[in-house]
Amino acid sequence: MSRDSSNILLRQQYTGEPRQAAQRFYQARGLYFGLVPDTTDPAQQLLEAALVRTLARPHPQVPAPAAAGTFFGLRGVSPDLDTLVLWPHPDHLPPLLGRILPVRTDSGIAGVPGLRARPHPSRTDTLLLARPGHRAHLILRARPATLQQAEDHILAAGLEPLWSARTPQPGERQAWDHLAGTLPPDEAALWSRALRRAGLHTAQTPDWSRNAPEPGQLEGPKAQRIAARPVGPAGGPARGIVAVTSSRGQGGLGCTTTALALGGALARTGATVAYLGADDPNGLHRILKTPPQPGQWHDLLPGLPGPGTLRGMILSPSAPNAPALLADAARGHDTVVLDAGNVFQLRHLAGHADAAVVLTDLDPEVWGSTEILDRRPAWVQMWDWLNRRYLTARARDPRSQLLNFLDETFETYVWDRVSEGHPDVYDADDPEGTAAWWDDFQPDFDDQGDEPLPLPEDLDAETLELWRQEFLAFLTREGAIRHPDTWDAVAAVWVHHNRNLDLPGGGDEEALTETVLREAAPTATARWGEQTWQEHHPRWAAADARTRKDSLTPWRHLIEETTHPADPAATARFLLAHLDAPENTPIALAVAHVDNALADEQHHLADVRDALRAEGIPALTVLPELPEHAEREDDLHALTRPSVQEAAAANQLARLVADLLATRTPS
Fold it and tell me: How far is CA 305 from CA 245, 332, 589, 632, in A?
């Protein structure tokens, strides 16, 4: 038996997937990420863990017939780096869906809360499983008609299926938070691995009804042979030139960071990768210890196992031979990543690429809207509203602003005095230094104040009290000159206020409370009713700041956010209208700096992908906020480490690019 055939058969032993699926994986990935890879994405890991634990511990009201010879109703799985295909046993498909999709029972929500199923955008025999607003997803080989069969199955048991609703239903968020809270990262990793190695347990499924999987149960017959090592894929690495640029030539979208992340991910697949960027201080200059010279190659990932390499070189945007240098790099490497960037960099060379990654802005309004559903009792909502009005009023009170300024500067003063032993706040004989210190006071009308710094633990209360008095005495002369209308009132209460930072401060707190209540009464009565107002506003007025805040904490879980995606066709039209990309070049459109749940919503993304594909854009993805490489202390190797969000994003982008390069029409 050939080495390739042996590896394919071994993968099947672990996964239980069809031979054709195992062969496709091996041809695309080889062993560079392991024959049966764990996911590198923590969100994906958590979703997989939630699913398999739900299967292992079904709700007693959900019918779950025995599924002998399967892994909880699955005959196998196809794991890739950050995706997972589920192969259900055809005889157990409706009950399987009924167990993993959310169902309302007498005692709560069963299944994976929030999980939704919809037809896959490009296959008629496949469902996409995802939670709205989350990038993690699963692919289930089942026809859409199976969803109706599963619904009939659940209705026959007298239960309510929730998965037909596009948005989360009441209680689902709390149920998910509870489930996720019982899956710490180490345990989630084991559950996820158990699902990805389902083939080990199809003959006899272990009893995980009480205990989590143990590492020894998941090793399989030849643990060393499935480990990651430099054995090249039968299909070979991605070949060609890919440009990374911005949609309209604008800067600030992270083209350089994305290009380097993409280059690192491609190199890990065994490809020899060249990174070419402009002679720009934000490019190679920021990650190399010695300034790069044009035409000089630099190894950006030294010590990378296997044949994969990532080398970098800078090009001058005005160099007349830049296209020739680009062609030379392509002849000497499997893949060239061109950091085309914006109009002031190498964007004019993007037309020489075989594929392009085009970064575009995230406009949340184009993707949809978020509805906040507040299910808290009326009096809790009213207290929260009064708290915010009170904080806003305090923030606009000049005495409160000056009090907060003294609190912040006293923290710095204490730490400086502990380290340097100097009793003065600043050099009072230096007019410029004095002015600079006081000019740091800027009235801030934002009620979101910074958290106070913890003071040194080894300072006793008497010393701190003495330092407060000395701090205030030092500032009094200059403070009275600079703040004649507020200083005396602030100085009279600051020491007591700072000693008890949990207490409200800033002058006449009782008068401020009365003003807030007087102005709030008409609106509060109209919104929550006369009875709620009369019963609860005196209690709010009598409470101190800590009580007002802490009283709301137990009710926080009753605030639910629901995402409402926009029309996919409208989103696609907006993206296309703001797209200026190389002509006749396959494009992966990447929405940059995504921290918005709507743009991570897998079902909506699939719809937008369909609309873009109809307009000739073959791929769409989203990218999280990737850390600037200059911020790293340990170089680009961080991108190749498991369970790092940017590594997962880079891997996904590398797969899209490899597909674009593999399917392009040769010139």
Answer: 29, 20, 31, 21
